[in-house]
Predict the structure.
Amino acid sequence: MIELFAKAQLPTRYGLFEIFTFKGDGNDDNAVLVRGDEKELSGAENVPTRIHSECLTGDVFTSKRCDCRQQLEQSMEYLGKQEIGILIYLRQEGRGIGLLNKIKAYSLQEQGYDTVEANVKLGLPIDNRDYDFAKDVITFFGIKSIALMSNNPSKFKYLEEHGIKIQSRIPIVVEATPFDRVYLDTKREKLGHQI
């Protein structure tokens, strides 16, 4: 169960959002951006929703090893053009394995392992994320159904299994580069991402 802690206006290059923070269940560092009037979310259907897991190397340092920053920017740009929408930013680095292990996995990728093989080699889960906080946020705002901005089928499955109605999907299309082509191919071929 989460409880609103603080909120404030957040002007961005993609438009004006409101940023929310919540307390509860150890999720104090997650952030939620809301586009439009938060009151309009209550009872709303097909709300454009992006659930984005933190990627320090991509989101902040603009790494080209992954498509995370492009997905985040594309989502914010899309949401900035909507009357209402929501972006839930989850602090679960490296598909939930943490920054230290993510950099170890990077090192193995430089030796020829793909992103899945590197996690397995380290004895780590391939994807250790959960979306309980996202479910709680959607419930908190009283959203009836969402249009999920994602290519990840396990995210859809998790949310639907936990009572979130997904009315539609908004694909995120990012063009591969020489640096992230193997990463994107692995996400598609081994993790079932719709890219």
The radius of gyration is 17 Å.
